[in-house]
Design goal:
Arc Repressor Mutant, subunit A; Rossmann fold; 2 domains
Length: about 280
Protein backbone atom coordinates (compact mmCIF):
# COMPACT_ATOMS: atom_id res chain seq x y z
CA UNK A 1 0.00 0.00 0.00
CA UNK A 2 1.20 3.52 -0.59
CA UNK A 3 2.59 5.42 2.38
CA UNK A 4 1.19 8.81 1.38
CA UNK A 5 -1.23 10.38 3.84
CA UNK A 6 -4.87 9.49 3.27
CA UNK A 7 -8.06 11.07 4.53
CA UNK A 8 -10.04 7.97 5.52
CA UNK A 9 -9.17 5.45 8.20
CA UNK A 10 -12.21 3.25 8.89
CA UNK A 11 -13.05 2.85 5.20
CA UNK A 12 -9.43 1.94 4.46
CA UNK A 13 -9.38 -0.70 7.21
CA UNK A 14 -12.64 -2.30 6.08
CA UNK A 15 -11.57 -2.43 2.44
CA UNK A 16 -8.25 -4.14 3.22
CA UNK A 17 -9.52 -6.38 6.02
CA UNK A 18 -9.42 -9.62 4.01
CA UNK A 19 -5.71 -9.10 3.25
CA UNK A 20 -4.63 -8.60 6.87
CA UNK A 21 -2.65 -11.12 8.91
CA UNK A 22 -4.10 -12.54 12.14
CA UNK A 23 -2.40 -9.86 14.26
CA UNK A 24 -3.40 -7.12 11.87
CA UNK A 25 -7.03 -8.24 12.05
CA UNK A 26 -6.89 -8.00 15.87
CA UNK A 27 -5.71 -4.39 15.55
CA UNK A 28 -8.30 -3.67 12.86
CA UNK A 29 -11.10 -5.12 15.02
CA UNK A 30 -10.00 -2.99 17.96
CA UNK A 31 -10.00 0.23 15.91
CA UNK A 32 -13.36 -0.56 14.27
CA UNK A 33 -15.01 -1.50 17.58
CA UNK A 34 -13.35 1.10 19.85
CA UNK A 35 -12.37 4.12 17.72
CA UNK A 36 -12.80 6.53 20.66
CA UNK A 37 -10.30 4.59 22.78
CA UNK A 38 -7.79 4.84 19.94
CA UNK A 39 -8.33 8.59 19.51
CA UNK A 40 -8.04 9.36 23.20
CA UNK A 41 -5.42 6.75 24.01
CA UNK A 42 -1.73 6.29 23.34
CA UNK A 43 -0.06 3.68 21.19
CA UNK A 44 1.13 2.01 24.42
CA UNK A 45 -2.43 1.75 25.77
CA UNK A 46 -3.76 0.30 22.52
CA UNK A 47 -0.93 -2.22 22.32
CA UNK A 48 -1.46 -3.27 25.94
CA UNK A 49 -5.23 -3.67 25.43
CA UNK A 50 -4.69 -5.89 22.40
CA UNK A 51 -1.72 -7.72 23.93
CA UNK A 52 0.81 -6.98 21.21
CA UNK A 53 3.98 -4.89 20.83
CA UNK A 54 3.90 -1.14 20.15
CA UNK A 55 5.92 -1.72 17.01
CA UNK A 56 3.19 -4.02 15.63
CA UNK A 57 0.59 -1.26 16.03
CA UNK A 58 2.96 1.24 14.40
CA UNK A 59 3.56 -1.08 11.44
CA UNK A 60 -0.20 -1.52 11.04
CA UNK A 61 -0.62 2.26 10.76
CA UNK A 62 2.01 2.29 8.02
CA UNK A 63 0.34 -0.72 6.39
CA UNK A 64 -2.91 1.20 5.88
CA UNK A 65 -1.17 4.26 4.46
CA UNK A 66 -0.29 6.53 7.40
CA UNK A 67 3.10 7.87 8.53
CA UNK A 68 2.44 6.58 12.03
CA UNK A 69 0.02 6.23 14.94
CA UNK A 70 -0.43 9.96 15.51
CA UNK A 71 -1.35 10.75 11.91
CA UNK A 72 -3.83 7.86 11.93
CA UNK A 73 -5.42 9.23 15.11
CA UNK A 74 -5.94 12.66 13.55
CA UNK A 75 -7.84 11.25 10.58
CA UNK A 76 -9.78 8.79 12.77
CA UNK A 77 -10.82 11.64 15.10
CA UNK A 78 -12.29 13.59 12.18
CA UNK A 79 -14.28 10.53 11.12
CA UNK A 80 -15.82 9.71 14.50
CA UNK A 81 -16.81 13.31 15.26
CA UNK A 82 -19.19 13.21 12.31
CA UNK A 83 -22.69 11.81 12.99
CA UNK A 84 -22.54 8.05 12.50
CA UNK A 85 -25.61 6.19 11.26
CA UNK A 86 -25.20 2.44 11.13
CA UNK A 87 -26.84 2.04 7.75
CA UNK A 88 -24.86 -1.10 7.08
CA UNK A 89 -26.34 -3.07 9.94
CA UNK A 90 -26.53 -6.81 9.46
CA UNK A 91 -29.60 -8.50 8.07
CA UNK A 92 -31.26 -10.63 10.72
CA UNK A 93 -33.13 -13.92 10.13
CA UNK A 94 -36.38 -12.48 11.52
CA UNK A 95 -36.29 -9.23 9.50
CA UNK A 96 -39.41 -8.73 7.38
CA UNK A 97 -39.26 -8.14 3.64
CA UNK A 98 -39.36 -4.34 3.86
CA UNK A 99 -36.58 -4.23 6.46
CA UNK A 100 -34.37 -6.48 4.33
CA UNK A 101 -35.03 -4.26 1.31
CA UNK A 102 -34.19 -1.12 3.32
CA UNK A 103 -30.92 -2.63 4.56
CA UNK A 104 -29.93 -3.66 1.05
CA UNK A 105 -30.64 -0.17 -0.26
CA UNK A 106 -28.70 1.42 2.60
CA UNK A 107 -25.82 -0.99 1.97
CA UNK A 108 -25.71 0.05 -1.68
CA UNK A 109 -25.81 3.72 -0.76
CA UNK A 110 -22.90 3.23 1.64
CA UNK A 111 -20.92 1.36 -1.03
CA UNK A 112 -21.35 4.31 -3.39
CA UNK A 113 -20.46 6.86 -0.70
CA UNK A 114 -17.35 4.94 0.37
CA UNK A 115 -16.21 4.50 -3.23
CA UNK A 116 -16.68 8.21 -3.86
CA UNK A 117 -14.40 8.96 -0.90
CA UNK A 118 -11.47 7.06 -2.43
CA UNK A 119 -12.06 8.09 -6.03
CA UNK A 120 -8.86 9.37 -7.63
CA UNK A 121 -9.66 12.33 -9.90
CA UNK A 122 -6.39 11.99 -11.82
CA UNK A 123 -6.90 8.26 -12.44
CA UNK A 124 -10.44 8.85 -13.72
CA UNK A 125 -9.21 11.57 -16.08
CA UNK A 126 -6.37 9.37 -17.34
CA UNK A 127 -8.80 6.48 -17.98
CA UNK A 128 -11.11 8.76 -19.97
CA UNK A 129 -8.20 10.03 -22.08
CA UNK A 130 -7.01 6.48 -22.80
CA UNK A 131 -10.46 5.42 -23.98
CA UNK A 132 -10.83 8.51 -26.18
CA UNK A 133 -7.44 7.83 -27.80
CA UNK A 134 -7.90 4.07 -28.20
CA UNK A 135 -8.34 2.48 -31.63
CA UNK A 136 -10.57 -0.10 -29.96
CA UNK A 137 -11.61 -0.73 -26.37
CA UNK A 138 -12.37 -4.16 -24.96
CA UNK A 139 -13.96 -4.92 -21.60
CA UNK A 140 -13.02 -8.14 -19.79
CA UNK A 141 -14.72 -9.76 -16.81
CA UNK A 142 -15.57 -13.26 -15.59
CA UNK A 143 -18.41 -14.55 -13.44
CA UNK A 144 -20.23 -11.62 -11.84
CA UNK A 145 -17.77 -9.21 -13.43
CA UNK A 146 -18.79 -10.48 -16.87
CA UNK A 147 -22.17 -8.84 -16.33
CA UNK A 148 -20.40 -5.54 -15.61
CA UNK A 149 -18.29 -5.90 -18.76
CA UNK A 150 -21.43 -6.51 -20.85
CA UNK A 151 -23.10 -3.47 -19.31
CA UNK A 152 -20.02 -1.38 -20.17
CA UNK A 153 -20.20 -2.65 -23.76
CA UNK A 154 -23.92 -1.76 -23.88
CA UNK A 155 -23.10 1.80 -22.85
CA UNK A 156 -19.93 2.48 -24.83
CA UNK A 157 -21.24 1.13 -28.13
CA UNK A 158 -23.32 4.32 -28.17
CA UNK A 159 -20.17 6.46 -28.33
CA UNK A 160 -19.13 5.23 -31.76
CA UNK A 161 -15.84 3.97 -30.36
CA UNK A 162 -15.14 0.38 -31.51
CA UNK A 163 -15.86 -1.62 -28.35
CA UNK A 164 -15.97 -5.34 -27.59
CA UNK A 165 -16.83 -7.64 -24.69
CA UNK A 166 -16.63 -11.40 -25.08
CA UNK A 167 -18.49 -13.69 -22.64
CA UNK A 168 -16.64 -16.98 -23.19
CA UNK A 169 -13.20 -17.12 -21.51
CA UNK A 170 -11.57 -18.78 -24.53
CA UNK A 171 -12.96 -16.08 -26.82
CA UNK A 172 -11.64 -13.46 -24.40
CA UNK A 173 -8.14 -14.91 -24.64
CA UNK A 174 -8.34 -15.07 -28.42
CA UNK A 175 -9.58 -11.52 -28.68
CA UNK A 176 -6.92 -10.30 -26.23
CA UNK A 177 -4.21 -11.89 -28.37
CA UNK A 178 -5.22 -9.69 -31.33
CA UNK A 179 -5.03 -6.37 -29.48
CA UNK A 180 -2.29 -3.85 -30.29
CA UNK A 181 -0.50 -0.94 -28.59
CA UNK A 182 -3.19 1.35 -30.03
CA UNK A 183 -5.90 -0.46 -28.06
CA UNK A 184 -7.22 -0.26 -24.50
CA UNK A 185 -8.20 -3.20 -22.29
CA UNK A 186 -10.51 -2.59 -19.32
CA UNK A 187 -10.23 -5.50 -16.87
CA UNK A 188 -12.91 -5.87 -14.19
CA UNK A 189 -12.40 -8.06 -11.12
CA UNK A 190 -13.56 -7.34 -7.59
CA UNK A 191 -10.77 -9.33 -5.95
CA UNK A 192 -8.16 -8.60 -8.60
CA UNK A 193 -6.85 -12.15 -8.15
CA UNK A 194 -8.92 -14.11 -10.71
CA UNK A 195 -6.61 -16.30 -12.79
CA UNK A 196 -8.63 -15.83 -16.00
CA UNK A 197 -8.37 -12.04 -15.76
CA UNK A 198 -4.68 -12.14 -14.85
CA UNK A 199 -4.05 -14.40 -17.87
CA UNK A 200 -5.74 -11.83 -20.11
CA UNK A 201 -3.73 -9.04 -18.48
CA UNK A 202 -0.50 -10.87 -19.22
CA UNK A 203 -1.45 -11.38 -22.88
CA UNK A 204 -2.49 -7.79 -23.56
CA UNK A 205 0.56 -6.39 -21.79
CA UNK A 206 2.83 -8.59 -23.92
CA UNK A 207 1.17 -6.88 -26.91
CA UNK A 208 1.77 -3.41 -25.47
CA UNK A 209 -1.92 -2.76 -24.87
CA UNK A 210 -2.79 0.04 -22.42
CA UNK A 211 -4.74 -1.27 -19.42
CA UNK A 212 -7.35 0.00 -16.98
CA UNK A 213 -8.34 -2.09 -13.96
CA UNK A 214 -11.58 -1.81 -11.97
CA UNK A 215 -11.16 -3.63 -8.67
CA UNK A 216 -11.47 -3.34 -4.89
CA UNK A 217 -9.13 -1.06 -2.96
CA UNK A 218 -7.30 -3.99 -1.41
CA UNK A 219 -3.82 -4.63 -2.79
CA UNK A 220 -4.03 -7.21 -5.60
CA UNK A 221 -2.05 -8.39 -8.65
CA UNK A 222 -4.51 -6.61 -10.95
CA UNK A 223 -4.32 -3.26 -9.17
CA UNK A 224 -0.52 -3.40 -9.11
CA UNK A 225 0.02 -4.39 -12.75
CA UNK A 226 -2.47 -2.32 -14.77
CA UNK A 227 -1.55 1.13 -16.08
CA UNK A 228 -4.52 2.81 -14.40
CA UNK A 229 -6.22 1.19 -11.37
CA UNK A 230 -9.72 2.38 -10.44
CA UNK A 231 -11.11 1.33 -7.08
CA UNK A 232 -14.45 0.48 -5.50
CA UNK A 233 -15.25 -0.14 -1.84
CA UNK A 234 -17.84 -2.41 -0.25
CA UNK A 235 -18.49 -4.49 2.87
CA UNK A 236 -19.61 -8.07 3.30
CA UNK A 237 -22.62 -9.15 5.37
CA UNK A 238 -23.92 -12.56 6.44
CA UNK A 239 -26.36 -12.74 3.54
CA UNK A 240 -24.54 -10.73 0.90
CA UNK A 241 -20.97 -11.04 -0.31
CA UNK A 242 -18.69 -8.05 -0.69
CA UNK A 243 -18.50 -8.73 -4.43
CA UNK A 244 -22.29 -8.34 -4.82
CA UNK A 245 -22.45 -4.82 -3.38
CA UNK A 246 -19.29 -3.81 -5.23
CA UNK A 247 -21.13 -4.25 -8.54
CA UNK A 248 -23.25 -1.19 -7.76
CA UNK A 249 -20.07 0.88 -7.44
CA UNK A 250 -18.51 -0.69 -10.54
CA UNK A 251 -21.60 0.13 -12.62
CA UNK A 252 -21.61 3.70 -11.32
CA UNK A 253 -17.90 4.12 -12.00
CA UNK A 254 -18.38 2.94 -15.58
CA UNK A 255 -21.39 5.26 -15.94
CA UNK A 256 -19.23 8.20 -14.85
CA UNK A 257 -16.51 7.35 -17.37
CA UNK A 258 -19.06 6.82 -20.16
CA UNK A 259 -20.77 10.18 -19.62
CA UNK A 260 -17.39 11.95 -19.47
CA UNK A 261 -16.36 10.30 -22.74
CA UNK A 262 -19.61 11.44 -24.41
CA UNK A 263 -19.10 14.99 -23.17
CA UNK A 264 -15.51 15.03 -24.44
CA UNK A 265 -16.63 13.78 -27.87
CA UNK A 266 -18.96 16.77 -28.25
CA UNK A 267 -20.89 16.65 -31.54
CA UNK A 268 -19.35 13.30 -32.52
CA UNK A 269 -20.79 11.71 -29.41
CA UNK A 270 -24.17 13.31 -29.88
CA UNK A 271 -24.36 12.06 -33.48
CA UNK A 272 -23.39 8.53 -32.39
CA UNK A 273 -26.22 8.58 -29.86
CA UNK A 274 -28.65 9.75 -32.54
CA UNK A 275 -27.68 6.87 -34.82
CA UNK A 276 -28.22 4.34 -32.05
CA UNK A 277 -31.61 5.82 -31.17
CA UNK A 278 -32.72 5.75 -34.81
CA UNK A 279 -31.60 2.15 -35.18
CA UNK A 280 -33.54 0.87 -32.17
CA UNK A 281 -36.58 3.13 -32.52
CA UNK A 282 -38.32 0.58 -34.76
CA UNK A 283 -38.30 -1.91 -31.86
CA UNK A 284 -40.56 0.30 -29.78
CA UNK A 285 -44.35 0.28 -30.05
Amino acid sequence: MPTKEIQHCLVRIRSHYATFSHKEKRIADYILEKPHKVVYGTINQVADDIGIANSTVFRFCKRIGFKGYQSMKIVLASEITEPINDIHEKILPDDNEKTVAEKIFHSNIKTLEDTLKVMDEHAIKAAIELILQGRRVEFFGNGGSSVIAQDAYHKFIRTGIPVFAQVDTHMQLMSASQMTPDDVAVLISHTGTTNDILDILEIVQENGVKTIGITSLAKSPLSQKVDIPLYTLSEETDYRSEALSSRIAQLSLIDAIYVNVLIAQKEVGIESMRRVRRAISSKRI
